[in-house]
Amino acid sequence: QWLSDRKKRALQKKDVDVRRRIELIQDFEMPTVSTKIKVSRDGQYIMAVGTYKPRIRCFDTYQLSQKFERCLDSEVVTFEILSDDYSKIVFLQCDRFVEFHSQHGHYYRTRIPKFGRDFSYHYPSCDLYFVGASSEVYRLNLEQGRFLNSLQTDASESNVCDINPVHFLFAMGTAEGKVECWDPRTRNRVGLLDCALSSVTADTEIDGLPSISALKFDGALNMAVGTSTGQVLLYDLRSSNPLIVKDHHYGLPIKSIQFQRQLDLIISADSRIIKMWNKDTGKIFTSMEPEYDINDVCLYPNSGMLMTANEAPKMNIYYIPVLGPAPKWCSFLDNLTEELEENPESTVYDDYKFVTRKDLENLGLAHLIGSSLLRAYMHGFFMDIRLYHKAKMMANPFAYEEYRREKIRQKIEETRAQRVQLKKLPKVNKELALKLIEEEGEEQQVTRKRKQKNLPSLLKDDRFKVMFENPDFQVDEQSEEFRLLNPLVSKISEKRKRKLKILEELEAQEQEEEEEPEGKASDAESSESSDDEKGWVEEVRKQRKLLRQEEKVKRQERFKEDQQTLLKPQFFEIKEGEEFRSFKDSAKKQKLMKKTLGDRLKLEEKLGTLNVSDTTVGSKQATFKLKKSEQQKKQQEAERQHRQERKTLRRSASHLKSRRGRGRLFH
Fold first, then answer.
1. Among 38, 169, 346, 484, which is 20 to 30 Å from 464 by CA?
2. Alpha-carbon distance 34 to 50, whole Å?
3. CA–CA gap between residue 308 and residue 302 (Å, rounded)
4. Beta partners for 381?
5. Is the pLDDT confidence value at 175 over 70?
6. Tally of structural domains, the chain
7. Is 281 within a domain?
C-alpha cells in the first residue's frame, strides 16, 4: 500500500511473495459477504451465496472462472444442490420462501408457514424436511408437488437437521440442546439425545443452556453435534453418551462440522477458528485462524483443499498436502508446494529497515518524522534501507572497521577452541564472581559425594545478570557498611586479588597471541589462624579505629573550609513601581494572611473598605472598595494635575478674550 503502481509492477518481477501468489479461480469472491459455500457431487462446480445484493455465483473448476451469477429477491439462509451438477438447486430464504432453480434459472417459488433455519433432502422419497422457528418439521414432496403431514416434535424451535446417507435416519438439533432422531418410513421418533447435559464437563464453563448449532453424520453409526457454547460432541448411535467432547475454548457457536476419512479427522469451525482433531483421541492435528469471521467451511471431496465463506468479499481457499492430494483441476499445486518447501523465504520488507525513535535520534534523522521518508508502524517507523545505510555510514564512519575487527577476533577465538579454556570473569564485580565460582566448585564436590542435584549458579541466572554488567552495581569495598560487616573479607580478598592478577596477565598474554607460560607453583595459600573468633574481633577493632581516624580528618577539613568562607552581604531587588518603606509592612501582610477569612472581613469593615448588609430575601450583600496600588495612585495624581492645568489655561484664555473685546469697544 506504500508503493506506487510502477513500483508494484517492478515488485511483481522481483518479489517472491507476489510471484508465489496463486489465483486458482478468477474473481472467487462476493460483493460484500459470503454466507454459504458448497461443491457439486461431480466436483466440477463450486457454488456460493452471499450479499449484497443477495445472489448466487457458480464457478466452473474446469475453466477456473465464473460460470454464472443470479440475483435473488431476499437473502439465502441455506441451499442444497439436488443434482450432480448445477441443474437443480433449492434455496431457503429469510422471508419463509423456498425457491427452486433449474439449469436455465428460476423455476418455482413456494412458502412455508414459519421461518426456516435449515432443511435436508430425503432421496428415496423425494421429500424436503424443513426445520425452523416451530415445533413442527414441514415436509414438501417434490414428486407430488405438495406438502405432506408435518412431524410434531417436543421442541419449541429447531436449528439444524441432517439425514444419514446410509440408512436415511433423520436427525434434528433443537434450541433446548437435544437431538431428536426420526424414522422417515414410519414417521415416528426413534431416539432422543440430551447433548446439553453431556457437553458440560468439569473443565468447561458455559453461560446459559447450550443449544444445537451444527449436526453431521459420518457413515452409518457416527454423528457429530456442535453446540452454541463451542463444544463438539462425537456420538455412536448405539450409545446415549458421547465418545469424546472437544471444546473450542472460545464460547462461540459451532458453524460447521466436516469429516476427513483418510486421516480420521474432524474439521470443526466457529466464527474465529478452524480446528482439525483426531476423532479417536481428540488430539489437535492443526488449526487455522483467518483474518475475518467464518460463516461456512466446505471440504473438497477426496483432497486436501478447504474453502471458507467469510465476513469479507474474498472467499479463502486453503490447500493442506497432508490431508490429501490436490484436485485434478489444479494438480499443479502439488509441484508448487514441493518447490516452495525447497526455496528459502524472503519478506516484502527486505527493502525497508524498522527503526525506533531512539534509533532515529542516534542517526540524526529525528527531523524526518512526519515526512514521506518514514512510514509509521507500531512503536517505530519503516525507512528505506539505502537511506539507513547512508545515515549510518555518516553517523559512524568507522563501523566497517569495527565490524572487520570483530570478525577477525571471532575467527581467532574459533582457532583457539582446542586450547585450554580460561575462566572468563565479568567486567563488574570480578571478586564476587570469583568467590561464586569457588563456592560453586566446592558445592559440586559435596553434591557428588552425596549424589544430590546441583543448584543453579548466580552467574548463569538471568535475574542477576545486570549485577555483573552494570557498573552501578559495583560493590564499594571502602564503604563503612562493607568494612564493618565483612571484617575477615580482607584476608580472603587478598588471595582472590592474587588470583585475579594471574588471570588478567594470562588474558593479556592471550590477546597478544603469545604462548601460554607453564603453570607455576602458587604461593598464595598461607597459613591461617585456627582461632577465627579472635581474628574477627581484632579485625573489627582495627576497622573501627581506621573509620574514626578518617572521620576526624574529614571534620578537620570541613572546619578549615568553613573558616575560609567569608560572609557576603545579600542584596534584594525591589520591583519596578514599588517603594520600599520598611520590613514592618511585609510582616503586617504576613500576619494578615495568617488570619482567617472572617477576621480579615471584620478588619476591613472597621477600615471602611467593606460593607456587609442583609437583603430582603434573607441573603447577605457585601460591597467593597479595591485597594489602589502605588502605581495607580501616581497615575491618578498625574491625571488630576493635568486636569487642573487645563482648567487654569481655559480660564486665562477666556479672560484674555474678554479684555480684547472691551479694548475694541473703548477704542
1. 484
2. 4
3. 17
4. 355, 376
5. yes
6. 2
7. yes
